[in-house]
Write a structure and sequence with these properties.
Blueprint lengths: L1 H23 L10 H12 L2 H34 L1 H16 L2 H12 L3 H25 L3 H9 L4 H39 L4 H10 L3 H29 L4 H7 L1
Length: 254
């Protein structure tokens, strides 16, 4: 309760400072509208039916890309982390992909997959992929060698070692990667909507900017932040369900 109270107070102080800055320095509403105008714009935005269509589109792109990134990133990280020859062959390509500016690839994906939701999902998955892959790879590499030897002495099969040792040891790393990936998945979806969107919250923000409805633009940004917070909280809460025995899950409970 004390932590929650501190967080609420910090948010209220932030809005008071915002209001004080706008009023004290006579800032133009076209640059930074006062918080009450943004709140009213947010209420008006949530009363419109098309807003929920844009929310659904962005969520579909974000969650679709996130799921692809989790599946592919986890599997590839485990394979490269446990099989040396695959690590040697494929890791340079994975690193090169990560070092390539993702925004520069957006026109290519639009050319290949079109202007529909498919290209947005692929872009979202591309941004979210590397945190999952790198943490899954690190988790596979971090399995205790002593435990591996115990399983070998016990004549456990490859599948038994993978299911009972490698996966449980890797799960804390994978979940950490997922927490970062959900944030990047949202960024990928919104940026792709900025560049070539005809629907979604990123597209809506672009339209409001063109119409100089700055208060509504801020309302869209706040709505995106709220969605991101909820998704991050849900992914972070998976620790309590998937790895309740781990120290990170105990920290989440506290």
């Amino acid at each position: 309760m004390n932590r929650l109270l501190i967080q609420i107070i910090s948010v209220l102080v932030f809005f008071l400072l915002w209001k004080g800055y706008v009023s004290g320095f006579d800032v133009s509403p076209l640059v930074l509208p006062p918080p009450e105008d943004v709140l009213h714009a947010l209420v008006r935005l949530m009363q419109r039916d098309d807003t929920y269509y844009h929310i659904y589109t962005t969520l579909a792109e974000c969650l679709g890309g996130f799921c692809i990134a989790v599946i592919v990133g986890t599997l590839l990280g485990q394979l490269l982390g446990r099989i040396a020859i695959l690590d040697t062959i494929f890791k340079p390509f994975v690193i090169a992909l990560q070092l390539t500016p993702k925004v520069a690839l957006i026109p290519l994906f639009i050319l290949w997959f079109g202007f529909g939701i498919e290209s947005k999902i692929i872009i979202s998955a591309l941004l979210a992929f590397f945190p999952v892959f790198s943490n899954s790879y690190l988790g596979a590499k971090s399995v205790d060698t002593g435990l591996i030897e115990v399983f070998q002495v016990g004549k456990a099969s490859t599948w038994q070692r993978f299911k009972l040792l490698v996966i449980p040891a890797s799960l804390p790393y994978i979940l950490t990667g997922m927490e970062m990936a959900i944030v990047l998945a949202i960024i990928g979806a919104v940026v792709s909507e900025f560049v070539a969107g005809s629907r979604g919250l990123g597209y809506l923000a672009t339209i409001k900017l063109q119409d100089l409805e700055v208060d509504t633009l801020f309302a869209v940004v706040i709505l995106l932040a709220m969605i991101g917070f909820v998704l991050y909280f849900i992914v972070g809460s998976l620790r309590k369900v998937v790895i309740p025995w781990h120290e990170s899950a105990k920290a989440v409970k506290k």
